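Project standup — Tuesday

K.O.: blocked on the structure for the chain from last sprint. Re-posting the sequence here as requested.
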Amino acid sequence: MDNKDSEAEIHPLKTEDVKAQENHEHFVERRIVKSSGLSRLSRWRTAAFFISLFLCLIIVFAFSFIIPCPERPVSERTWFQYYNNAVPYPFLAIEDVNEDRVQDVLFAFQSSNGSNSFNMSCQDGGLPSPCAFVSAVSGTNGSVLWESPAAQDVQWLQCGVLLLGTATTGTAVTPGCFVVEKSLSLTALDLRTGQVLWRRSHDFGANYTLLTPLSVVPDLDEDGIQDLIMFIATEGQVKFFIHSAKTGQRIGSTGTLSVDGNARYVTLDLRSSSYFLFYTEKSLYAYSLKDLGSAVVETEMNLSDFQPDSHWEKHIDDATHRLELLSLLRFGDIHYLARVPGHSRDHILVVNSEMATLINTKDLHTMWTLNVSHLLSDPLLGYYKPDDHGIILESEIGPNRKQILIVQSESGAVQWELKLNSRAGSPGPATLPTADHRSAFLMWGDYQELGNETRHTAPLQKLYLFHPSYTHVLLELRNSTDQIVAFTAALFERSRHACYVLLRGPQPSEGPGPVSLMKRKLKEDISVSKVIWLRHMAGDDEQHIRDRLHRMRFQSRD
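H.V.: unblocked you, prediction finished:
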């Protein structure tokens, strides 16, 4: 004992070292135990990460390869729909009926029965036979989506203009079509199903003329749906009435305008209001939307956003509503009036017996005049230069002879012209927007090359394509010996699948016969087209031009 104490006294740090060593050993043991626990936790975390990653990969793989994506409809390049013992009406509408993002075709024909797809008869619509059927055909493959016996005889067909409601509930709304019967019965059809939503009749006697197209106006009865205004010429004057598009009910009374009964009309959108311009050969009248609404509805309407244009009102006679515009024209007779979009507002194109004149609607001054007469079709808009509006004018220049002009809208300069042989009833031109912000122009006629200018008594109907990238070239796409009732061109899918549609069959005076509806993809005809040289240029190669125009891309304009 004494020795131990002596030893401790002689070496006092030895005991402390032993204790420190013991404490250090205990600390290392605890640290080893703790490190072992952390290591096991880290391994679990790593395992959990890789398991999660593996599950994510399995889910991605399943959605990418195992679970199929929704199939995009594949449009056939060409399809036909045939009808026997029918008479087609000269109307074609392009709308997405079945909501598959591919445009469909709507048209009307008169027959005792519909297509074989539906086996519908006039009796199904409570109509005498024969009657008028409205049919919707799929843009992808030409199958019939729906058919509806809609009227006894069709005077006008207009689709996709507004939302319509059901007359029974007055609540459900759907895109629709209007069918105007010759007895002036107005029928609203559901664009999706062809079901009759409502029908309204008017009795104006036998001697009346419907002024087309039908016009959509803002919601006058405040039911949440825009409304419809109709103009008719009867007994030497123009009358109008407004319908609720939701229920078909008449809004207010029948209005009467101080306008000659031989008038036609166009609508014009100014910054503050919409104007309706009625024109006869010697007169021009202007009515604002507020004028028309106030004339038929006694109660105050909510038209605060459509106040008449103050500058225009100075040029409109308060009593007669005549517009002081004829003084700007060299010749007073008016054959045609058209609306031309400008940079900030619409302008007016006036065509008379000698020339075309563009009027600026801001201050009603003449922008330009151009010698042209005897228009064969409505003026059409397109783009000869990128994003620069051009006006396509098709005028008669002699027996079975016509001239096509592309005119720059702001200056009136002729950008391109072409003379063609043409027969009566030939379809008017069409345009399709291209990705270079210009247009492809489609036109019908019979081009006579230099040195081969023999004129046929009944020229052939040939469809030509022109694009401003080749101002010296025409592509002849197809010949047609059949009687063409209606023709249009459209992009059947957004920014792609440019097609044209032909409706062929007998005229009403010829009686029932075979009717065909055809959709044709434009590039199919371009690849086998005939190249026509308006003038030769160095380095020209036919196949190179076909290939370039075949690769041409189309782009929808919003």
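K.O.: great, moving the ticket to review. The mean pLDDT is 84. The two ends are 108 Å apart (CA to CA).
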